[in-house]
Amino acid sequence: MAFAKSNRLPVGAIQCDNTTLSLLKANDYVAKSIRDKMQTQGTLLINITSSAGSGKTTLMQETARRLKDKIKMAVLVGDLETERDAIRIREAGVPSTQIVTNGVCHLEAQMIVQAFDHLDTTGIDLLFIENVGNLVCPAAFDLGEDYRVTLLASTEGDDKPKKYPRMFLTSELMLVSKADLLPYIPFKVEAAAQDAREVNPEIEVLTLSSTTGEGMDAWCEWLMSRVEAKKAELAEVAV
């Protein structure tokens, strides 16, 4: 005689989703743990995304030079191979840990958790995650960040926000990088900004050049205001 299996749960048990059935659901679960950790520490977490070659590492270097004496910051760097970018950032004076993805075209939340074993984030005011250069896959993976910032280099063309809408839809800030080249190329900042805002009406737009310093003050002010807001949130919880 066959008996049907009971679907009743033991007293006090919780029905859990099978996260192995969904990569993104599993990623979101881990991302929440990162977000909770950063909230408890009062650490502002910024996920920096862009196409390859848009200037993320150069931006991290210049940001480090400008802010390292004001706040404690660190950078996690994602690349398919090599530790070159992390070395460049460390040379700028801030701790940086390289995450080598071995061919994976994006960072995932579990990679960030593994990186925490090699980078002590205690006392860090601002932690950057420099994602793998790609406007497609990284858009789908929450890393527990407070803000996603996407670089759009002037050398890429001003039509990227409509071609890769999900990245700009999920970003709070678009940085038009390599602004020093604008006089020499057919890139229209206004057109790129309009397309980005049609995709995401809430997105902010700043234009900068990490090499000449144009717009860097505004970028650093944007960061510092959010670092201070994160600290204020932590102070309110502690009261």
Shape type: globular
As an assembly, this protein is: single chain
Reported for the largest beta sheet, the result is: 7 strands, parallel
How much is the average pLDDT? 91
Q: Indicate the proportion of strand residues.
A: 15-25%
Number of strands: 7
Under CATH at level 1, the class stands as: Alpha Beta
CATH superfamily: P-loop containing nucleotide triphosphate hydrolases
| Strands in their spatial order, largest beta sheet | 3-2-4-1-5-6-7
Low-pLDDT windows of residues? 1-13
What pattern of helices and strands is seen along the backbone? HEHEHEHEEHHEHEH
Radius of gyration (CA) equals 20 Å
- Domains counted in the coordinates: how many? 1
Helix content: 25-40%
- CATH fold field value: Rossmann fold
CATH architecture: 3-Layer(aba) Sandwich
Compute the number of helices.
Answer: 8
**Broad structural category:** alpha/beta
Roughly how many Å apart are the termini? 63 Å
Topology:
Layout: H1 23-41, E1 44-49, H2 56-67, E2 73-79, H3 84-91, E3 96-100, H4 109-115, E4 126-130, E5 147-153, H5 160-163, H6 165-169, E6 173-177, H7 189-199, E7 204-207, H8 216-238
Parallel strand pairs: 1-4, 1-5, 2-3, 2-4, 5-6, 6-7
